[in-house]
Specification:
Length: 325
């Protein structure tokens, strides 16, 4: 059996120290296979982005620190690599598309230089050839008049165009893994669809794996192969996208699905929000961290922390009240 491209095992990332410490990622484990799209979903503050930053070792230290677990990428444990070796991996073998492109692009540099730089650095390609490759990448992400755009600055582009530039940068060195952290949050619905279709098409063409971080379950249904649902810094359910939508088991997952509009809903049917607020990671309740908001809570939920349990071979959940093998 082929090994997964990425294996995250018991990853724990903490901020602060002593009584003031916050565990933002708590004992998280998941795999990403070659060519697969894995979505990580959940409300703001659930630990999605810190998980992504931990994989690339971009958590600012201090105040943050990876305090436990392994991140195995192509057989290498990224948690044990020297910083110099990590720099050779970032942007080269693992690329990241950040949530807001305007803060990720350097406003004082042309986009041609910003796309060509990682090609020159990692692939040792002469600058002229790197610029030619940058033009090809802009063509590939369907940037109009790509050649003349190389000399433009980020402020001269719309939000959707800037996100296309970020995708071009991510693809520059033909990485094996791309992490997209809420890549369409700041875009309108039409542009969101264009960007996601483009990202899925390009990763399929290149054979790259994709980790898609989002809070939009509509995005997940259309673009993901597998889904990890996070809450309170932990993965509380994981399954194929088809199985998760057909049979959501954790009350939190069902709550997320009940809170979004559906085309097949009868007129007048109101959405059902999840009551309460996401937990304070510095003061998690005892037992299951979702228990104060859960309508199915039992005494054991307030006492014992549930670990991921099998509902079937590939569908796991962390809930005392849902069915499991």
């Amino acid at each position: 059996m082929t090994k997964p491209l990425l294996q995250v095992r018991n990853l724990t990332t903490r901020f602060g120290h002593g009584l003031g410490s916050v565990t933002a990622v708590n004992n998280v484990s998941f795999d990403v296979n070659a060519g697969e799209t894995v979505a990580i979903v959940g409300e703001s503050g659930s630990g999605k982005s810190i998980t992504a930053l931990s994989i690339l070792r971009l958590v600012p230290e201090p105040p943050g620190k990876i305090v436990g677990g392994e991140i195995l990428f192509d057989g290498l444990d990224l948690t044990k690599l020297p910083e110099e070796e990590m720099r050779a991996i970032r942007g080269n073998r693992i690329a990241m598309i950040f949530q807001e492109p305007m803060t990720s692009l350097n406003p004082s540099l042309t986009i041609g230089l910003q796309i060509a730089e990682p090609i020159n650095l990692h692939m040792k390609m002469p600058w002229q050839k790197a610029y030619d490759k940058a033009k090809q990448l802009l063509d590939r992400v369907r940037m109009p008049d790509a050649k003349s755009r190389l000399s433009s600055h980020p402020h001269q582009f719309s939000g959707g165009m800037r996100q296309r530039i970020m995708i071009a940068m991510a693809l520059a060195c033909q990485p094996k893994l791309i992490i997209a952290d809420e890549p369409t949050t700041a875009l309108d619905v039409t542009v969101q669809a264009q960007i996601l279709e483009l990202l899925k098409e390009l990763t399929r063409e290149t054979g790259s794996s994709l980790i898609l971080i989002t809070h939009d379950l509509g995005v997940v249904a259309r673009y993901a192969d597998r889904v990890c649902v996070m809450y309170g810094g932990k993965i509380i359910e994981t399954a194929s996208a088809h199985d998760l939508y057909a049979r959501p088991l954790h009350p939190y997952t069902r709550g997320l699905m009940a809170s979004i509009p559906r085309l097949d809903q009868p007129p007048g049917v109101r959405l059902v929000p999840i009551k309460g607020q996401p937990p304070n990671l510095a003061q998690l309740p005892p037992g299951c961290s979702f228990n104060p908001r859960c309508g199915e809570v039992i005494d054991r939920c307030r006492r014992d922390v549930p670990e991921l349990m099998h509902a079937d071979e590939k569908h796991l959940h962390a809930c005392w009240t849902s069915p499991h093998v």
